[in-house]
Structure formats: C-alpha cells, structure tokens
Sequence to fold (137 residues):
Amino acid sequence: DQLQTPGARKACLKAHVSNLTAACRSALFSRAQEDARDVRLNQDLFRACSSEIDRACGSHRHGQARKIKCLWENKEAPWYSAECKRKVVQATREKISDYRLDFRVRHNCQDDIKKLCAQEKENVDSLPVEEVFATGA
Fold:
C-alpha cells in the first residue's frame, strides 16, 4: 500500500510544495541534503564507490555526510566509475525517510502535515517500527 510507505509524508509535502510555508519548504530542502548522514549506511553506494571513497575522500571522517559530500563534489573526476557516479546522483535524489525520524521536517511542517497530509500521517504513524526499519531481507 503506497500510503503506508515510509516517506509518504515527504512525498505528499513535495506534491503540495506551492502551498507550503516558507519554513516548511526550507526544512524539506535542507533535509533532502542531509538524509544520508553516513555513506556506510547506504551499502549500495558504499559498495559501488569504495575505490572512489578511498581515492578522493579517504581523509574525510565518516558521519555528517562528509564522504557523501566528497563523492558529490568529485563525481566528475575522469577516474570515477560510471556506476559510482550513477549511485551518487541517485543517492542525492532519494529522499526515503520517515517524518518521525526527521525533527526539522516534523517540527517545521507540522501544520502543513496536519492540513495537507492527514491521511499519510495517519498511515505512517500506524506503521510498526519493524516495518519502518525493514531491510527487505
């Protein structure tokens, strides 16, 4: 069921972006840049870019999206593999996160969520934590 998919609230907000408050739009934009805090948590990206991480980003500490930012900033390097570049671009575009795990969106968008995304909120709020963190394994 699409409405019970983690991230449904953000998708709803994005669908209503022209109706959102400036604070909410800003929070969504900021959060989109920070969703992936650590490249090690995105195993697909981590595997595809392991040599690029070592070569371009080895001096950057893990966490706070330092290595992901490094990958993005260097993605045009001629020695980047096509697969790594594709994964970096894809990871930058993906915004798969449950609003309950995102304080800024939850806080700055609470009125917009109640007004525009009540059904998505109800559906996502009813998900058991096991489904929110399901790995597909």
Residues 45 and 87 are 6 Å apart (CA to CA). The chain is about 60% helix and 0% strand.
